């Protein structure tokens, strides 16, 4: 996705190569991540696609199958990776991720601590935000999840920017070696208030914490704990509403036939046939917009707090 060289400079590749990870786009709700192998093929409802035909083509290319069907080959950006990754846990989506990165004031060179890693959706975007000279240290108490996350970061080219550790942050806190070194900390834990004292030790002066919680009761208890060492405590709920915008053809009628549009479709068709009146010239297509039926609702609450400066 974001391959790096020996000094961790990001080098965005423009063409597909053997061994690359690509996002095969069929439609907005049907994408998959595939590793390119010259001898392999992809079979789907649009036909058979040879990987060898993809090599050397620029990302974003439209490629055709033996049947004439097509897909698009997209670079696996953090945004697209969030939509195709394996869900080992519930993940954060783009609306929450972008809000978190902005309010945590993450810029290139930052050191970010995260717990827990989960499916690595947020970790991937954090890595891009701190590149090329920063680093993300992410922890999960589940050893197999941590191992799977490492494999994903290898596939996406981010292993030099993300270190995955196995640790129970609620019970043990963050490792002492990070004391006073973190610019920001992100918590996605069932009992974040247990980790907040450790977070206070890890953050630099004026550093920022974000805690993600699905229930408001978790937020209330976390805020009670935050008041002793943190200030500027704020909680947000990010709701995203998407719209479908497309062309629709609308038929027009003349004279008394306009009233036929008030009838149900089957009755309207019967009436037109009985009277021998056909449609007039159809009106030009109209662009219409409506809220998407797949719009996501509540995902969780984001609580931000800034470490108080030492007197």
CATH topology name of the largest domain, in short, is Rossmann fold
Strands of the largest sheet, in order across it?
A: 9-8-7-10-11-15-12
In terms of quaternary structure, what is this? single chain
State the helix count: 8
Count of domains: 3
Per CATH, the class of the largest domain reads Alpha Beta
Strand percentage, roughly?
A: 25-35%
Look at the helices and sheets and give the structural class.
Answer: alpha/beta
Per DSSP E runs of 2 or more residues, the count of β-strands stands at 15
The name of the CATH architecture of the largest domain is 3-Layer(aba) Sandwich
Average pLDDT score? 87
Major sheet summary line:
7 strands, mixed
Output the CATH homologous superfamily of the largest domain.
Vaccinia Virus protein VP39
Shape: globular
Helical residue percent band: 10-25%
Poorly predicted regions are 4-9, 252-263
Order of helices and strands: EEEEEEHHEHEHEHEHEHEEHEE
Indicate the radius of gyration in whole angstroms.
Answer: 26 Å
Query: Termini separation (Å)?
Result: 44 Å
Protein name: tRNA (adenine(58)-N(1))-methyltransferase
InterPro entries: SAM-dependent_MTases_sf, TRM61_C, tRNA_MeTrfase_Gcd14
Enzyme class: transferase
Subcellular location: Nucleus
